[in-house]
Specification:
Elements (H helix, E strand, L loop, with lengths): L6 E7 L6 H15 L3 E8 L5 H8 L6 E6 L5 H11 L4 E4 L11 H6 L7 E6 L6 H18 L11 E4 L15 H11 L4 E6 L14 H20 L10 E3 L4 E4 L2
Parallel strand pairs: 1-2, 1-4, 2-3, 5-7, 7-8
Antiparallel strand pairs: 3-9, 4-6, 5-6
Amino acid sequence: MRELSSVSAVFPCYNDGGTIASVVLRARAALEELTDDYEIVVVNDGSADYAPFILEQLIPLVPALRVITHDHNRGYGGALRSGFGAAVKDYIFYTDGDAQYDPQEVLRLSDLMTDDVDVVNGYKVRRNDPLSRKVVGGLYRFAIGRLFGLVVRDVDCDFRLMRRALMDKVVLRVNSGAFCVELMKKLQNAGARIVELPVQHYLRPYGRSQFFRPRRVARTLIDLFRLWWRLIIAGEGRIAEQPVTPGSAPAERRGD
């Protein structure tokens, strides 16, 4: 484990009432090992389950916790944009609030965050989802990688540690599930030095995926086409890109 100067852990939360508490508490345990200066930012993206109640109970228990609340659901990208915009520490770590990744693996990511690295990008060792989603996910990664010229092997593995200074170099606009493609392509275009590390992916213990719904899929496809046109055809922000180095196996509430 490599200690870091300061870390903002960002977690989007949409109907993750059954998992968000464990995600926050496991993240706190890891961050206390990683740095003396950290914050945990949870973006409640218009949750309709009991996630807001759980977060309300967590605030007095976790002083480093900040909760940003959206009055209505803005989408995955919209939640992360709010979280990244609120982050104030030197490094940003983010993953989902559904507990399909273990926040404590950020300790492994920190090992690779050396002076010549800007992003440590996780990729799934094995995807623990139904077979249909594995097939769709594999086809999606292949197609997106080719269309956008991405150098990372798993753009939809939402488990990343990044230097916050990188966010000053990119403008993120997407609110849908296409956000991760926009994020990684623009960081790649900005010359980010990226390494990769395998991480575990777990079965969803609570709720259901919000992505595989007709309206969300349609919104994502439209956003992907617009991104492709702007970034690939129009060449928005295009500069020389850096190679990936393989790694080893709104309303806000704050705790006192």
